[in-house]
Structure formats: C-alpha cells, structure tokens
Amino acid sequence: MLNQLSETIYYLSNQNDKERPTLGLVCGDNYSLVVDAGNSVQHARDFLHEIEKLNVPPVKYVVITHAHWDHFLGMN
Fold it and tell me: What is the pTM of this model?
C-alpha cells in the first residue's frame, strides 16, 4: 500500500525483513517519476501494481538515488 505525503508525492515503505528500501513516486502534470527501482524485478512489479491503483499520470522516468543493489536491481 502506498503512503501519500502530499497531493503529488507517494511512497512505498521499506521492508527490512526482505531488504526492500523505500520507493517513491512524484506525480507531475503529464508524467510521473519513480524514485529508486527496488531490490528485484518483483519489488518493482509490486510497486508498479500499487501505482496502477492510483489516478496519476503514467510513469515515464526513474531516478536512482545511489548505487546500492537494493535501489537499482528492479530496473531489469
């Protein structure tokens, strides 16, 4: 479940037991941006599935905050 910080910013909470970091979503007027891609393809899919439940612009961009494996392996 996504948590809402503001009208345009959401996040998926971290799960320490699965080594999953917090992932973010920033929604613009036309497109949305994902902050970090997660620790696996499944983590990314779970996040994208939650985003689909929202009425937000489509995801077009992803930003990786740093080069730790748990923040970029979901890009696959």
Answer: 0.94
